[in-house]
Amino acid sequence: MKYFEYIEPKDLAEASQILNEYPEAKILAGGASLVVLIKNNLIQPSHLVNIKTIPGLDQLRWDSKEGLKIGPLNRHRDIFESPLIRQHCPILSEAASKISSPPIRNMGTIGGNICHGEPAADFPPALIALGAKLRLFSTKGERIVAVEEFFVDFYETILSKTEILSEIIIPPLPSRIGGTYIKLDKTNNSIAIVGVAALIGVDEKGNCNYVGVGLGGVAPTPLKVKNAGEILLGKKVEEDLIEKVAKEAQLIANPITNIYASDRYRKEMVYVLTKRALKEAFSKALMI
Amino acid sequence: MNHQYIGKSIPKVDSNPKALGSAIYINDISFPNMLWGKVLRSIFPHAKILNIDKSKALRLHGVKAVITYEDIPDGRYGPFIKDEPVLARDKVRYIGEPVAAVAAIDKEIAEEAIQLIEVDYEELPAVFDPLEAMKTEAPIIHEDLKSYFCVFPAIQDRRNVCSHTTFIEGDIQRGFKESDLIVEDTFKTHMHHQSYIEPSGAIALIDPSGKIIIYSSTQSIFITQSRVSESLKIPMSKIRVIAPNVGGGFGGKIETNVQPICVALSQKTGLPVKIVLTREEEFSASRPRHPCIIWGKLGVKKDGTFVAKEMVNVFDTGAYADDGPGVAGFGSLMARGPYRVPHLKIEGYCVYTNKVKAGAFRGFGNPQTTFASESLIDMAAKELGLDPLEIRLKNSLNPGDLSVGRQPIYSVGIKECLEKAASAIGWKEKKEKYRGRGIASINHISGLLTVSAIVRVNEDGTISLHVGTMDIGQGSDTILTQIVAEELGVSIDDINLVIRDTDATPYTWATSASRLTYTGGNAVRLAAIDAREQLLDLAAKQLDENKEDLMIRDKRVFVKYSPEKGITFQQLGAISCWVKGGPIIGKSSFMVEKPAFDRSGFYGFPFGTMSGYIFAAQAVEVEVDPETGKVKVIKGASAHDVGHAIHPQNVEGQIEGGFVQGLGYALYEEIVFDNGKVINPSFADYKIPNSLDTPPITPIIVEAYDETGPYGAKGLGEPGLVGVAPAVANAIFDAIGVRIKDLPITPEKIIDAIKGRKGKIEWEDFRK
Amino acid sequence: MRKYDVQLDINNKIYTLSISPQRTLLEVLRDDLGLTGTKEGCSEGECGACTVLLDGLPIRSCLLLAVDVRGRKVTTIEGLSQGKELHPIQKAFIEEGAIQCGFCTPGMILSAKAIINSNPFPSEEDIRIGLSGNLCRCTGYVKIIKAVKMAAQRMRREL
Description:
The complex is a heterotrimer of chains A (288), B (768) and C (159).
Chain A: E1 5-7, H1 12-21, E2 25-28, H2 34-39, E3 47-50, E4 60-63, E5 67-70, H3 76-81, H4 83-88, H5 90-97, H6 102-107, H7 110-115, H8 123-129, E6 133-138, E7 141-146, H9 147-150, E8 151-153, E9 156-157, E10 164-170, E11 177-184, E12 194-202, E13 208-216, E14 223-224, H10 228-232, H11 239-252, H12 263-286
Parallel strand pairs in A: 1-3, 2-3
Antiparallel strand pairs in A: 4-5, 5-10, 6-7, 6-10, 8-9, 11-12, 12-13, 13-14
Chain B: H1 15-20, E1 35-41, E2 47-53, H2 55-59, E3 63-67, E4 76-77, E5 84-85, E6 91-92, E7 98-104, H3 107-116, E8 118-123, H4 130-133, E9 161-169, H5 172-177, E10 181-189, E11 201-206, E12 212-216, H6 221-232, E13 239-242, H7 259-269, E14 273-276, H8 279-285, E15 292-300, E16 306-318, H9 324-333, E17 343-352, H10 366-384, H11 388-395, H12 414-424, E18 435-444, E19 447-448, E20 450-457, E21 463-467, H13 476-488, E22 495-498, H14 516-543, E23 550-553, E24 556-559, E25 566-568, H15 569-578, E26 585-591, E27 602-603, E28 610-611, E29 614-624, E30 631-641, H16 648-668, E31 673-674, E32 677-678, E33 697-702, H17 719-722, H18 724-736, H19 747-754
Parallel strand pairs in B: 1-14, 12-13, 16-17, 21-22, 30-33
Antiparallel strand pairs in B: 1-7, 2-6, 2-8, 3-7, 4-5, 9-17, 9-27, 10-15, 11-12, 11-14, 15-16, 18-29, 19-28, 20-21, 20-26, 23-24, 24-25, 29-30, 31-32
Helix pairs in contact in B: 6-7, 9-10, 10-18, 13-14, 16-18
Chain C: E1 4-10, E2 13-19, H1 25-32, E3 51-54, E4 57-60, E5 73-75, H2 88-95, H3 105-118, H4 124-131, H5 142-158
Parallel strand pairs in C: 1-5
Antiparallel strand pairs in C: 1-2, 3-4, 3-5
């Protein structure tokens, strides 16, 4: 690789400062995506800022009011193994298990997976379904955005030059909830051709009290099926409503044609997968 | 018969260093003052080279040489047609073609330097489809085609066709008239990359005497030697090729890629030069499998008897012929399949296009034509209401039947292969919904060209086996050692294996054509027998006994009826070197010459004779998701007639590995082009199966003892892959009633077929 | 161009090196330390030939900066056997015929070690998942999976 300067900041403020001072600097977390880009000469950073040296960015804690707080440096493997995540949002463990292979899961971080901006990445649909929020830190201040607002275009996010993702927040969910992440891939765990994450919560009466559907691989960014709530909340989860949500997903999908699949196939599959994901989420919710 | 080594799965002779990580591959080798080479490649699929300006690159600090065609002799190479230059001369014919090369003190500088070479191109119209390339209005890719040296009388009867092979037996028109049912269709297969995990590479240096030494990750040290010799016009006596361990080849490392360039750079700089291809270069500029468009027509009787078969196989060989004529010819030869078909007309065309040249890959044309053939058989069976297994058994060759070319084949285990493969996947069992089973049966060869060997008795009675074959993982080093150990009554450890060095081993063609067990085994066996006879002769003299009364066990020659009277190999070795007779050197020079083909129906076939026919049947059970088209392979079974398994565990390994490669060919892998540019040149986008993609596989060994093979053995290397794709296609049809005729079979193609949106494969019979 | 003085713990041996930050662990292992058992197959983290264990977990050494490895333990294939004595996993690979061309073998063996370390009773599914980051083109994985099962069995007996 071409030469770059290497810095180990002691805290986020210093990291953000460096990003401010050197416009061509990049954050190094797991490196699973970043180093590949540098090797392929797609980016040529002047500095790599290794945030793994900053303490506290790999925390994982549960707060009954605010929900699950996940540090961005948690590796995919940590997300998969975490008892807290398995307890509170197992859909995230499921998504983690479908990312690539063990060596990548041992290196890659959830923060990196989100900030890379890959439209077919596996965490974003699950995070969208969970209603997750992202805390973005910079020396100029902090802001919190909904996950689905974070993505702008292929490999482009709303992160400003000096902002760093510092925390992922998953708000508390209803107790009777089920979810799943379904990924259509070529060979096992290769990049998602279409990925759908769905969560359904039901109340004591059997009415839907939570629904979240996130889509990956069918647009320049991960997508939220915004109208899912309108269709399902407060109602019994029945086949025709599930189909309605699936049709919504198909409507908002705006996929490309690439070597993996055509746009037509992706459009058709997002409908199929959304239906399946919702059905499975619902039956899991009923089992609680 | 009870053997000590034959039929035993002994620990392979090369496994220890590989397990320890101490086995040396090309990129592990370094020399003092070694330079790194890098190749500048064409960015246009077809263009004249007007000018190349090296000056900026030469001025970069650390660059020691920049070469273009002007710096090297005008030699062309190629296994069948000598059409390929080391560096492009007048024009470039594919994106990725080497145009210039740089040697620098490190990799980064070399990469920077090639960016500084300025090439002025004049773009020419390009053609990417072989059917288009044969039309009269297509751009001509090789204007000097007729002036190239061909090693066989190539028939070049159409635009951009470098070779046209035809096989005719019987009377095809009569055959179709006599048929009760005719099935006819068009099929398409794709470009498939060997994807060996070790990238190709070489190091060239010049020793103090002026001899060129090449370290080459190759399947043939002698082909490396030959190509460097003819392209750079250096006598072979001045070229030594040494191969380290090779991390897989599957055909892709038979011919040269960077070796001549390394040599030219080394000559220019006087220093060792290493080039190792990047994975991107491997996918876009090496020698993947030929895509093929196949039109096939099969005529059968209503009881399922095969009567007539006509096929036109159009192989897309890319910008240079490479192994294309052989692939087109051999693939067409194998297209009859392991069946009796009285009337045949099978044609193979090898066509130039402006894409990366295609070359040898496990199967060598057979996977392509077999995909069509075995699909057609199932289509016929369906129309006749016959079981696909039964129709194959009915028509399968019996011992004594003839090959295409009328050679009698006596070792024929195909029926047993079919029955066992079918049984292993539960052919007759009840099926679940959306599940299906498919089977395919194939033929191949394992006797081709030559292997020669020397077996020496060392001064201390241990043995040296000199053989030029390359073990690229398929186990030939072990098998050949087993054969020699068996013949001479020595242990595996007593044998010094001298391999991988053109200076130390006699000529062999290549690790190719599944031939090392059969052709190589015969060669080393004969050499060992020769050495044994000399040992017995010398022992007879020493013991003053008749040779016929002597036998060998545990490195000792003794009198059969009074075993206490004997002499050790150690003694014989010393005596031969010091006292009488001279050193014992057994040799053999085994060339496959018999049985010869009856070539009366052969036109433009680029090989001499072939033998060692091998057979296999591959069966698979799949489950198809009717809404997504995703195919899950539930289980596979692959039965191979290997004559006699010299190392059963190794045979299984080859069967299993070939099967998984076959699944990749059928379902996942494809080199994708956009106007001549490979757009998925990485493992990220070219997906080979991983451990979660592979089903349980049952390897089955069938042994139809071949009298002409060493200990009855025949070959195995390639067939493992050949029938898998049609077995999968047949299983998918069985599962959900759609037949996909173009590879790879993707979920999207299945959904398109289910929804009636079949892709049409364009076919126009251009022969009219 | 700055270089960083780092101490790398490779196979329980400490190496003090002066390394440029853009160099990967793979490059340093192979070119600086002569540990060529770890291979380069694709250089972009897809094939697994460069697998080493970092604090016991398999990672892509072609994607890891060498300067980023400080304070952590690296195990390469050379660190597995005790001198010439083969590790049970290496023995199992040899006996089960799990080695053909051998290029994927070092990475495969290390991934196998990680599988068995985390679970002495790995199921076939566990093994397939654990090996899914190591591509093999020769064997079809069948005998490799068998070898890992055999090794796990033997290593349990040795406990």
